[in-house]
Amino acid sequence: MKLNLKKIKELKTFSILIIPDHSGIQTKQRKLNLGTIIAIISAYSICIFIIGFLLFDVGPFGRMLGLNNPNLSKEEIQQVEMLNKRLIYLSREMMELKSTNQKLKEAMYLGDSTLVDSLLNIKSKKTADSVSTVKNKPIKGDLFFILNKLLQGVDKKKNNQIFFEKPVDGFISNKFDTETGHFGIDYALKTGTAIHASTGGFVIFSDYTVKDGYMLIINCPNNYITIYKHCSILLKRERETVSTGEIIALSGNSGMISTGPHLHFEIWKEGIPIDPLKVFLNYLKE
From CA 268, how far away is CA 183, in angstroms rounded? Predict the structure, then answer.
């Protein structure tokens, strides 16, 4: 093997015989040295490279086969960056919607009047303990709040009863109708109108939803739930207790299904919607 390599290295010239197919033509012989052969192979390789570059990179064949990417202009680069920012924003919105849906599930899971009753009992005990400290102080506040407190005192005496009042004073643009899937009533209001708690309870949901906008759900005693939709501002947070007549939000026009500034109000009992107009200013037995 070593002898053969040495013989190849000692060779300095090569002979090429050109033999034609027809016997009548004379055979030609060409002598080429090693440098000439290397030059011919290099020139042939360069030609092949140039032809391939022109066909696939500059010409249309590369684009047809998807082998090259054309250079992007400044406007196209800006559009790509804008699309990337929108994708990042949409991904964040999706995460927020996912967390909001989780909160809604937890709110429906927490829709148990026993939780509200226990919280109200704790609150009443704290109030009773603090009565002695404020006994000699002058009473301050408005008449409406005092009447609400008196009504709440009557409710405590009647454990199986609950009192509802109108959350706002306004024109009812859409009434309760289960056949059309409208499980509450709509009040046509100006944006920013104060919304009062129809009855006291425990806030189990206070956040924005795509469909209903800013929404507030209050868990009330005796397995009642009140829902306030399409608000502009929510004044109460989750896990806060509210009293009857207390301002909890401001009306608005939020949410995809909202067609104008209004308040959508619902009352549910044990998973069944109730017409609010039939229970306002009335005492209901459990």
Answer: 9
| Domain membership of residue 105 as a residue range | 100-124+150-285
For residues 205 and 210, give the distance between their C-alpha atoms in angstroms, rounded to a whole number: 14
CATH code, 214: 2.70.70.10
Q: Is residue 40 part of a domain?
A: yes
H or E stretch at 5: helix 2-10
Same domain, 105 and 214: yes
* Pair 245, 226: CB distance under 8 Å: no
Residue 130 has pLDDT above 50, yes or no: no
Return the residue matching tokens 């406007």: 75
Work out the number of other CB atoms within 10 angstroms of the CB of residue 171. 9
What is the average per-residue pLDDT within 56-82? 66
Q: Look at the block and give the residue holding tokens 């055979």.
A: 27
Is residue 156 classed exposed, middle or buried when 0-12, 13-18 and 19+ CB atoms within 10 A define those classes?
A: exposed
Could you tell me if 247 and 107 lie in one domain? Answer: yes
Residue type, 51: I
pLDDT one-digit tens code per residue, 233-261 = 999 999 899 999 999 999 999 999 999 99
**Distance, CA of 17 to CA of 19 (rounded, Å):** 6
Q: Say whether pLDDT at 147 is over 70.
A: no
Residue 247 lies in a domain: yes
71 domain residue, yes or no = no
- The strand pair at 272-274 and 262-269 is best described as antiparallel
Tell me, yes or no, whether 111 lies in a domain: yes
Is 264 in contact with 212 (CB distance < 8 Å)? yes
- Please state the φ and ψ torsions of residue 192, each to the nearest 5 degrees: 100, 5
- pTM of the complete model: 0.52
Strand partners, 30: 16
Q: Is 193 exposed, middle or buried (0-12, 13-18, 19+ CB in 10 A)?
A: buried
